[in-house]
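Proteins fold reproducibly. Look at a sample protein:
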Amino acid sequence: MPSPQGAEAPQEGEGKNPERLYIITGADGERAPLDLVTLIVARAETPSSAPPEQTAVLRMCAAPLSVAEVSAYLGLPFSVVTVLLTEMLAAELVQARAPIVRQQLPDRSLLEAVMHGLQRL
């Protein structure tokens, strides 16, 4: 759909500099088995030679953040963030943790039995 000036609106992903993404990720190598809900926690202080993206990740991940959140906050695609985090995991700058899963709720009949028992007291 044309914009009011007659130029087309940029599509999703357009306007990004692909050369910059390659500089962030370097050569494509092995990747850590990360998914969107894996929690990332900073383990070390920011080295003075760290690139800006790594510095931002270390600052953000003082408290656990999911890979999806890191990707969103940095404005980088998930695939780029996984490569960046793989390098940081290898350098032991961050730690990856499994997501915290909520415990399954107790059976409703058990809760009702407890409630009825308390009412009888």
User: Anything to note?
Assistant: The helical segments are 18-25, 52-60, 67-74, 78-90, 108-120. The first helix runs from residue 18 to 25. The radius of gyration is 22 Å.
